[in-house]
Every structure is written in structure tokens, then in C-alpha cells.
């Protein structure tokens, strides 16, 4: 770019022949989460305007400045776009990006699906994040994604999801896969979730993938106390019992520096896939099943 170009985000729009809701699907809020980016393109390229009710607005990569550096946060100002909403139209690039996205896109749509993955160095179970306190607006949409795990959460603020909800739009975050690649099965999981949500919203024919039961989970992050080589001994979505070893950190000779045991019965929501680890970095996100709900 060398100061010659303008920063922008790509937008694909399919306008249906029939009236209906306007759904925005975004990916690439984090620049190292690739499968959602391809899923947005596939959904938009394969949505037929002749049969679509409403409109689909797809943004395959919101945060190109993070994609270009293959990082979670922006390569320009170092900010995590999903912690700084609603942004600031006079701030640094990421702050302007958040403000511009809200002003030009969110204001114009009725619902938002924010597609994520476990990031460049970890893999996450299929899970839909529904913001606590906004169940009336978003729980049905979250259930319609079809993932059995619902994380009622994110106590942290500054997400695109919260800003959209505060604007009165149904909005959920969808997580699956990750680890730095772009695997077909993860792309397909995102595409299936989006299509099911479109059926729930009445935009395309068919019935959404509603499950009889959903597990509501909360998550706790385990962080390394020692640097070294991380070896995972669990898979995302797998059950774990209290005290069960789900990962170890070894030194260059293979001697154990740290053993990561499950703090309680539950499941592994996310596990590190990058072997190199520094003190303070995430090893595992443990999930506790808080309750089970029916659709
Ligand atoms: Zn993300």
C-alpha cells in the first residue's frame, strides 16, 4: 500500500426478489481466522436472488489489516477489533473501522452473524455465543445455528455482537475450528450454520436445524505458567473429568515443565494447536455445563 491506497472492507450483497429481513454475515474480525472468510463467500456466491426473501450482506474479511499480517489483532495499530466496538470515527484505524462498520452496515441490517474460529494457534469446538441479557433478541437465532453448545457470555465488552445487540439487531457469534488452516469441514460447518439461520429467519426455504436440547456452558481460560513445547491431550468438544490431564508443557529435552489438568468435570472448549508457548499464553479453555435448555 505504501500510503497510496485507502483502507476498506469487501462487501458482497445479494438482494432477494422477495421482501424479507436483511442479514449481515461477517468474518475476519480476527485476521487469523480463515474458515469463516471462505464460508461468507460460499454462502453469498450460492444464494439465488430469485428465491431469496430479504437481503444478505456478506463481508468476508472485516479486518484486512489483521489478515495481511496473519494476526488476531491489527497489523496497523495492534488493536483487537473485537474488543473496541463501538470504535471512534476519529481514532486509529481499528477504531475507525469499528465505527464505520456500525454506521454503514449494522444500521442498515436486521441481524448479524459474526463468524470466528479458534484462531491461528488453537482449535475450538462448534459453539454459538449468545450475549447474556439479550436472550429475547438473539437466543432463537443462536439455537438455529445448530451447534449444541451455547456460551451465554462473553463478559468482556467491545464486541461487534454487543454493539449490534445494543442497536436492536439480533446478533450472535459463531465459533468452530481454527488452528491456522482453512479446512473444508470447518468451512462447511460455518456454511451450514448460516444457512440454518437463514431458514430460521424465513429467507430461504426449509426448516432450521433446531436441536431438542442445548448445553449452556461457561468457560475458563487456563494459561501457561511456563514456556516450552505444548502437547495437547484432548480434542475440542471432548468431555473431561476433574483432574484429567489435557495437556503438558515440556522443555527441549522432553522433560515436563507443567501439567495441565481439568479443574472440574466438563469439556474442553478450545485447545492450543501451536506447540510453541510462552508464559501467560492460553493452553486450554475449559467449559462447565451450567444447564441444559430445550428449543
Ligand atoms: Zn475470533
From TrEMBL:
InterPro entries with a match to the protein in the record: AstE_AspA_cat, N-alpha-Ac-DABA-like, N-alpha-Ac-DABA_deacetylase
Domain of life: Bacteria
Cofactor(s) for this UniProt protein: Zn(2+)
UniProtKB keywords: Hydrolase, Metal-binding, Zinc
Residue ranges of every copy of the Succinylglutamate desuccinylase/Aspartoacylase catalytic domain listed in the record: 19-200
Keyword Zinc: yes
GO molecular function: hydrolase activity, acting on carbon-nitrogen (but not peptide) bonds, in linear amides; hydrolase activity, acting on ester bonds; metal ion binding
PANTHER family xrefs: BLL3975 PROTEIN (PTHR37326:SF1)
Protein name per UniProt: Ethanolamine utilization protein EutE
